[in-house]
Structure formats: C-alpha cells, structure tokens
C-alpha cells in the first residue's frame, strides 16, 4: 500500500479504537477509569498516522526514506540491510512488539525529551504521507516537513503529558495496521519472522491502483473524521 493509505488507515484505526475500547485497553500502565480526553484523541490520530509508516523503515525508496532528507535515507538503507530487505523483519509481529515496548521504555525511562523527539518524528512521517508538503526528495520537500513537524511538536508540547500512557498503544497500533494493509497485497508479509511463512490475502492487485487511491484512502479519511466527530460530540 502507498504511504498515504497506511497513514489514513492508521488514523482510522486509532479513532475507532479510542471510540470503541475502554481506556484500560489504550494505556499502559492500565488506567482503570475515565476516558481519553479530546486533545489526546486528536493528538493520537496524527501520531498513529505517522506510526503506520514505521515498518517501511526497511524501504530505501519508500515514503519514510526521504522524510528527513539524506539522514532518513541513509538510516533506511542501513535498516533494510540489517533486517534482510523490504517486508522482512520490520513487517512482522516481532517488530510491532519491539516498537510498542521501545516506546513504553523510552517514555518511562528517558522522559519528556524522548517523548517530544518521537512526536517530532511521527509528525514528520504523517506530514509526508498525507502530502502536506511539496512532492519530491529535495530540500524544499524535507525542509517543509521539518518546519511543520517542529511547529506541531511545539503545539503538542503544550498539551501532551510527560509520560503519555496511550502513546505505546498508538505506535503499536499504527505498525500493526501497516502489516494488515500490506497483507492485502499479493506480496504479503512475513508476520511470523524469522519464519519464512508469508501471509497474504491479495485484495489489492497492485500498490497504488484505483481501488486503493480512489476508494480505500478516501473512505479511511471520511471514516476517521466521522468517528472523531461522533466521539468528541458524545463525550460526557
């Protein structure tokens, strides 16, 4: 699937989970009561959209590769080499578990600077994937991404907790939804890596085809907005 489709499906998954699941399912350590506030709900939507790009860190030509210019491109090339290529280690349940636990560990042991650095990176991914910047791989593109991500991080810094208990769930959910989307293509994913079993349900014959770009992605966007509106207007 295209980066835009991954991002919008991640946003929809977060908004749906926040609307349907008790807060104890969204947080770790578990919060036993209350509900997710409107600000956290909206922040989580954007951050999950960015997190839905994380498995493509193994793709030197993917959306994530050029999000921060040469820095992210070199990093993706290294990750691709270390993980065995595209749709191998980073497209597995093990990777989902790793980024979820890694987020929890960073938030709780490293504190606010880790949280803000992660927020910046996820916002940069969301900006790039949602086409909120000029196209291409040049400075005009990744410079715009950087400026918008810095501005968004500054805004979220005013609202986000030092240790947001919902952030690990957001990151893990985004990565998981990415795997689900890629399993709908004929190439599939090695969900049980390092086993060589490849899972696929080929409903999308080719990445970027008309079904994906003209039907699925618009539905993801419309669904996200509808669920957010319903959740916000019906909160006690």
UniProtKB/TrEMBL annotation:
What are the transmembrane regions? 113-130, 142-160, 166-193, 214-232
Q: What is one Pfam family matched by this protein? A: YdjM
Q: Do you know which InterPro entries this protein is assigned to?
A: YdjM-like
What's the domain of life for this entry? Bacteria
Record keywords, A-Z: Membrane, Transmembrane, Transmembrane helix
| Name of protein | Metal-dependent hydrolase
> What organism is the protein native to?
Nocardia aurantia
């Amino acid at each position: 699937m295209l980066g835009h489709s991954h991002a919008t499906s991640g946003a929809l998954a977060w908004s749906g989970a926040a609307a349907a699941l008790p807060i104890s399912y969204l947080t770790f350590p578990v919060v036993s009561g209350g509900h997710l506030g409107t600000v956290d709900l909206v922040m989580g939507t954007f951050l999950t959209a960015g997190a839905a790009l994380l498995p493509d860190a193994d793709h030197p030509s993917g959306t994530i590769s050029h999000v921060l210019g040469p820095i992210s491109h070199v990093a993706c090339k290294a990750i691709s080499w270390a993980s065995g290529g595209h749709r191998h280690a980073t497209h597995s349940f093990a990777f989902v578990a790793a980024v979820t636990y890694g987020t929890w560990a960073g938030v709780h042991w490293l504190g606010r600077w880790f949280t803000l650095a992660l927020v910046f990176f996820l916002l940069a991914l969301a900006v790039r994937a949602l086409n909120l910047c000029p196209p291409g791989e040049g400075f005009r593109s990744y410079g715009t991404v950087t400026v918008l991500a810095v501005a968004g991080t500054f805004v979220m810094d005013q609202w986000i907790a030092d240790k947001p208990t919902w952030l690990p769930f957001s990151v893990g959910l985004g990565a998981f939804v990415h795997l689900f989307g890629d399993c709908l293509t004929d190439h599939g994913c090695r969900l049980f890596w390092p086993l060589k079993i490849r899972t696929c349900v080929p409903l999308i014959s080719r990445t970027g085809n008309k079904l994906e770009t003209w039907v699925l992605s618009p539905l993801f966007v419309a669904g996200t907005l509808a669920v957010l509106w319903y959740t916000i207007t019906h909160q006690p």
